[in-house]
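Final report, closing paragraph on structural work. Over the funding period we assembled a curated collection of sequence-structure pairs, and we close with a single example.
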Amino acid sequence: MLDAAAQALSQMFSPPFRAVLVKSIGLALILLVIIGIASYHLLGWLAGAGEGLAENALGPNAHGPLAILAFVLTIAASFGVVVGSVFLMPAVTALVASFFVDDIALAVERSRYPSEPEGKPLPLMRAVIEGVKTALLAVAIYLVALPFLLFAGFGALIFFFCTAYILARECFELAAMRYRPVAEARALRKQHHGTVFMAGLFIAAFVSIPIVNLATPLFGMAFMVHMHKRLAGQQPQLIRAAARDLPRGSN
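Its predicted structure, as stored:
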């Protein structure tokens, strides 16, 4: 696992990866800016609407204090958008990775596994659907975990472990889907769920580093391509049997 992580890190700035790195960082920045602008305007609108409702209820004499309060809330919302972008980075990573899974995986396969067959490219729609599902799951889990951030350290641990699980699951399954049907990819992940989750801790640590985390889609996918190569050859008949036993639509 350490070797796979080291290989993923060493490849990130190599020539085959540079174009993908620039594109993934650019898309991540665009998504964060769009989310930030939309969130700022939404919070500003809510503050203005709240001010109007409060003024109608309290009378015109409350206009001055309410205007000051609305201004303070707008400034606070600006800081909240910045902080929120940090928490949304794993969800953005999941979405960005789905767009570049084949570019990243192919670069890893050709540079480190040239004698082995290359994976079959995923249909873009299939990859994007997986990315959107993972991003929405990440947001839902973080909203549930948000109240626990009030407890020193506890909320941060929940956030960290949730991030590890979510990103490990998506990146590993996307890497596996290049070689096997969806059900078998999920069965392989379930069979090695402990190892995959431990690998996800590396991705969670990477995404926790400001600025550097913009490259998380590249690191996460490259890392899980290596992990899939190491795990894929183990007991394939059990993987297929587990895939048949999975309920339809199981995650």
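Residues 10 and 120 are 25 Å apart (CA to CA). Residues 236-243 have pLDDT under 50 and may be disordered. We thank the funder for supporting this effort.
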